[in-house]
Every structure is written in structure tokens, then in C-alpha cells.
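subagent[fold] <- orchestrator: predict structure for attached chain, return C-alpha cells only, no commentary.
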Amino acid sequence: MSHTAHIRSHRKPRRSATTSIAVRAGVAGGVLSMAAAGASATAFAAESTTQTLELPTLSADLGSQVAESADAMQQAAANYQLQAERDAAATKAAKQAKADLAEAKKKAEAKKKAEEARKAAAEEAASRSAERATLSASASASVSTSASTSSSTATGSAAAVIAFVKAQVGDAYVSGGTGPNSWDCSGLVQAAFSQIGVDLPRVSQDQSTAGTQVSLSNLQPGDILYWGGAGSAYHVAVYVGDGMFVGAQNPSTGVVEKPLSYDPPTGAVRVL
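subagent[fold] -> orchestrator:
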């Protein structure tokens, strides 16, 4: 027995032809499959890349549409603002119209009241005129029946002056007023003395020096009282006796009869 009879051979067993062919076919098939897969992947990748990189191109028409859209939005905003301004103006006009209507009603009411007051004053003035006529007639009768010549004439004239000024009590005071229903102080005094033919100056400064200066302790009815200095008096009235005077005092009181203590005069002049 040979000493190598039980040692296995190191030579590889030979493959059969069928096995080699199958292996080769498998290898070839795998290679082809891989090639096909690679080609498909390459084509997909190429297609995907092409689709991703295709961006829309901003054409002239599209740019024009965008511009028109922006103009339309701007015009719409301008229209909204204009409408808001018109609404605000309409609201303001409505408020002003309401205020004007209220003012017109107020003025109409004031006019109505003024007309009513005017009518009432006219009626009162007519009543006073009748009273004045009665008093004047009474004064004239008193003059004609006086016993003494010089002193009674003065007394009678003074009575006529006093009757006239008392008949105006309640009339309104108006600066520059000379009657018949409104007076200022010197206008009333001048009108009173004109009833007996005595022509006095128009203003109080001149009336305060128109006659003989007399003491306030020696007053007689018909004397002219003045306030302020002689020649610079700012107010005059008529002394009516019994410590009373009648004068057109101010716009608040009008023509009133008051005691000397109400507003003590500065001096007096006698023209009768």
C-alpha cells in the first residue's frame, strides 16, 4: 500500500460544463439587470431634474397683467377713500343743517317775542299819551287859576314841568333819546321845559349852568338837579318836591321817580 493512499488530493474538483454555463448565464443576467436598473435610474433622474428646473418664464403679457392688477387695486383703494370722505362730508353737512334749523327756530321765537313786546310797548305808550294829555290839561288849568302874578306863574310852569316828567316814568332809557317813549337824562329835561316855552341846551354839561345856581337845602319844585361839576355834569334830573326827583337814570331802570337819598345830586340850578 502506498504511503499516500489515504491523503486527500489538494486539487479542486473540476466543474461540469453545465454548471459553468449556468453560472455564466446568472452572472450575465445579473449584469444585464443591473445595467437596466442603472439606465432606468439614470433616465428617471434625468427626467426628474428636467422637471424641477423648468421654471415659468415672466412673459410681457404676464408682466402687463400684474401691473394692471396693481393699478386696479390702487384705484379701488382710492375709490374707498373717496367714498369715506364723501360719507364724512355728508355726516358733517347733516349735523350743520340740524344746527342751522335749531338756530333758525330760536331766531324765529326771539323775533316773535320781540314783536309781542313791541306791541305791548306801543299799547302802553298810547295809554301814557292819554295820561299825559290829561295831566297837561290839569297843569294848564292850575296856571290859569293862580292868584299871584309873578310867583304863581313860576309855580304853574313848574307844575307843568313836573306833570310832564312824571308822565314819562316807566319809559325806556336810550342814550341820545329825546322821546316820545325813550329818553336820556338831558333829553327828558329839555323836553319837559320845552312844554312851557323854555329852550334849554341839549346836553347835561350845558344844562348844569343854564340857570341860577341854588343850594340843595333850598330846592323848589322844577329846579334842575345835576351830578358832577357845574359845566361838567354827567347827569341831570328834575326836582319834583317832597324830597323826590324824576330822571332818566340808566338802561336798567329807565325813567324813575326816586328820593334824593337814592342818588344824592351835586348841585342844582333854577330856570323858572
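orchestrator: received. Logging for downstream: The helical segments are 17-53, 60-144, 150-167, 185-194, 204-207. The beta strands are 172-173, 182-183, 212-214, 224-227, 235-241, 244-250, 254-259, 267-270.
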